[in-house]
Specification:
It is a single chain. The protein has 195 residues and is mainly alpha-helical. The chain has two domains: 88 residues, Orthogonal Bundle (Arc Repressor Mutant, subunit A), CATH 1.10.10; 99 residues. A three-stranded antiparallel β-sheet has the order 1-2-3, with helices on one face. Helix 2 crosses helix 4. The protein is 66% helix and 6% strand.
């Protein structure tokens, strides 16, 4: 495998691959045009994947699956990409449980939509359930109930059937929606009765 061209931070290889590298990698391996890097290919791919992974994580948090997919777009050596993603996890840069906790805490959605969204990002259902348990233990509150109550209060002026449809689309369980709306109505009637 020959380096046909080096332009900026990219290696153009004889197999058609264009590999992003850092100046440090270029210097470490003494990479120059026309070098045969067959014996170094795995090492260079691994280090380049690791460096790119760290850079991508500096921009935003990602799950293991997201990182794997992003790096596989950039690098052809998927075995070394997988090794780099594993290393990023070992170092604590990628943590699907913390990602799930943060996602749950910062989204207004109900559990069904959150489970769906996080599953799409490659987080297993058990990890999502664990995240909910940790939040429950740390706050002592049912975050799902709080989100549902806030959503009802924010959208209470909507017609009831439209409110219910909206809440279902947000991922809240219909049974809980009906319970909370009924409770809200009873409290309103009680308040009106007191006046």
């Amino acid at each position: 495998m020959i380096i046909e061209k080096i332009q900026k931070n990219k290696l153009y290889l004889s197999n058609g691959e264009i590999m992003d590298i850092t100046p440090l990698i270029r210097q470490k391996y003494g990479l120059k045009t026309n070098n045969n890097i067959e014996s170094l290919y795995d090492d260079i791919s691994y280090e380049a994947s690791l460096e790119k992974g760290i850079f991508l994580l500096s921009l935003k948090d990602r799950t293991e699956k997201e990182m794997q997919m992003k790096l596989n777009e950039k690098y052809s050596n998927h075995k070394m990409v997988a090794k780099a993603v594993m290393k990023l996890s070992e170092l604590g840069y990628i943590d699907d449980l913390n990602y799930a906790i943060s996602y749950i805490n910062t989204r207004k959605y109900g559990v069904q939509r959150i489970v769906y969204n996080l599953s799409q990002k490659g987080i297993k259902k058990e990890k999502i359930e664990e995240a909910y348990e940790i939040i429950q233990q740390e706050t002592g509150k049912n975050i799902e109930d709080e989100k549902l109550e806030k959503a009802i209060m924010k959208n209470i002026k909507k017609e009831e059937h439209k409110l219910i449809q909206y809440l279902v689309r947000q991922g809240f369980e219909p049974r809980k929606i009906f319970q909370k709306i009924k409770k809200y109505k009873e409290n309103r009637e009680f308040e009106n009765y007191d006046e």
